[in-house]
Design the sequence.
């Protein structure tokens, strides 16, 4: 597979993690597994029909789709003629570009966009990343990102902060926090915190040397023990830590 990521222009950095383009291997089909990261995204199919969402959805040529945040892993079949491109939005930034139903209806789902929100396939092929920058610069409808301070607190603690502490620190209630997370991210604040904690643990496991025990990593990342960490890794990736 050929996979390219590029950062958005400076004006879009508060809202978008990166733009990306993926092309299939010309010799064989491959499975691509994506792990939950708390983000939503927008995707367009520029190639042949592509099977995604663990086999439940075919992405059709020229159509644009909204991809909700996930609380588990997702597989896509990347065929030899697959050609996809899109944007990975930062948590809660969906509302800065689109008027749409609460994000909780998109959890683990991929939904076709109406034409008014869709990318134009014929304008993407030559310089896709230039097109994406122009597209989103023209669509910003609100520069205030909902939940920004709360998300920052979760990210800075690698998910190791209680929901009660989050609410207190941000002068709100747990119930209001729950409602806003469901509306703007789709996940509950606890689910989002768990994903950030999992991503931190995964990053450490993938970069650490073999002499460091899983128990040490579990303790550093706020898990009860190595078994707790192993089960979370398995739930989010489909693999045990030893297979990563």
Sequence:
């Amino acid at each position: 597979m050929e996979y390219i990521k590029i950062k958005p222009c400076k004006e879009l950095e508060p809202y978008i993690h990166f733009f990306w383009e993926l092309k299939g291997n010309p010799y064989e089909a491959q499975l691509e597994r994506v792990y939950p990261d708390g983000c939503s995204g927008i995707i367009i199919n520029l190639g042949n029909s592509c099977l995604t969402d663990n086999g439940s959805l075919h992405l059709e040529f020229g159509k644009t789709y909204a991809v909700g945040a996930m609380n588990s892993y997702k597989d896509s079949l990347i065929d030899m003629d697959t050609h996809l491109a899109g944007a990975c939005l930062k948590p809660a930034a969906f509302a800065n570009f689109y008027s749409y139903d609460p994000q909780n209806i998109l959890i683990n789902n991929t939904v076709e966009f109406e034409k008014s929100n869709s990318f134009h396939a014929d304008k993407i092929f030559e310089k896709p990343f230039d097109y994406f920058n122009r597209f989103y610069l023209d669509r910003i409808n609100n520069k205030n990102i909902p939940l920004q301070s709360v998300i920052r607190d979760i990210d800075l603690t690698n998910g190791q902060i209680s929901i009660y502490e989050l609410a207190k620190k941000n002068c709100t209630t747990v119930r209001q926090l729950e409602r806003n997370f469901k509306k703007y991210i789709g996940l509950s604040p606890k689910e989002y915190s768990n994903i950030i904690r999992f991503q931190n643990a995964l990053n450490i496991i993938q970069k650490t040397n073999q002499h460091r025990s899983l128990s040490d990593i579990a303790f550093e990342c706020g898990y009860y023990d190595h078994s707790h960490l192993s089960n979370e890794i398995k739930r989010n990736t489909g693999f045990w830590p030893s297979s990563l």
Remarks:
- The longest helix spans residues 189-207.
- DSSP finds eight helices and ten strands in the chain.
- The mean pLDDT is 93.
- Residues 125 and 227 are 47 Å apart (CA to CA).
